[in-house]
């Protein structure tokens, strides 16, 4: 079973994008190698759908979170060493000797650069092995995470007497051709599988350490995944992972209360809270750290959102029609009885108030009946909430208040029970003196 989402949801939640401003991926991408970066990118694109796998991965991140390790390798050095290995395996030791002799003669007679390139590559590999031997010696033994077996296999590489001998070498260029050939054959052929394992583990370590460093510096925690049958999301002290000064809130949804109906004035924080919930659930399915004091969730089959739905001029779609098509698309997924998290921010804001009221009420009530899904629905049409109170028992109502400091609104971003009665729109317009500006232009 794969985790379902789409481009619209990924963009709404700003999850992906190496160069995208404030994306969740860019927050965690502090890797030092291209291999580590590729692993992190692949991880971000493949959320897990099994509770045990999620908890196993979380335990690995948490292990490195506690270790306070520094990844001692630089991108250029690692790439140079891997490039040396990738130049090809030596068929046997004799062929290795012959090949190196030919390169050395070519260097002496024809001033060929091949011999120098080989020496440089071999030296970079030796330097990396020396640093790796020191680094792996610092890793504490722990059987509490599934990555330990891979670490143990990698550590065995440095107990091989041939590697021990190699680690004593300082300047490869000063060695005899025979010794260079022996080391060249050892790394490219005799221990080729072990060297591949070493690079694989180094890239994983790069990713794990980079992510856990971000988590530690930001005081993040780790989620506990439960089987999909639980239909649960329970978190305390939950914040948006990117916002350093975000206000923490709590959430508790289950099959008996599977809909959070959120009200509040514009700028009160509704959209940010919805993005916080969506991004955190996505990170939880990756087994990655998230900004919460505690976070418990049942595995879901996907996330769909409607937060920043654009119009489509090429297709001739108005903003309202684009919203309608988006709701229809999500409704089709929900009707398939999949366990989904659905986020709807300000439904049908592209039409008149009467239609928006009727449509938001009807759609919210219809979705609420699918108790295998969790929904967060926001609106500033507070009358919808009052009507839903009378019709549905499985909806919880929260709002984010606006506090007036005289004539100036202030937003606490703290969730409160109930439905807001804040109506400061006209006051804000008056504060900005828009009508005076218009009158003055006559």
From TrEMBL:
GO terms for biological process: mismatch repair. It comes from the Bacteria. Pfam families: MutS_III, MutS_V. GO terms for molecular function: ATP binding; ATP-dependent DNA damage sensor activity; mismatched DNA binding. Residues 257-440 form the DNA mismatch repair proteins mutS family domain. InterPro entries: DNA_mismatch_repair_MutS_C (IPR000432), DNA_mismatch_repair_MutS_core (IPR007696), DNA_mismatch_repair_MutS_sf (IPR036187), MutS (IPR045076), P-loop_NTPase (IPR027417). Transmembrane segments: none annotated. Keywords: ATP-binding, DNA-binding, Nucleotide-binding. This is DNA mismatch repair protein. It comes from Solitalea longa.
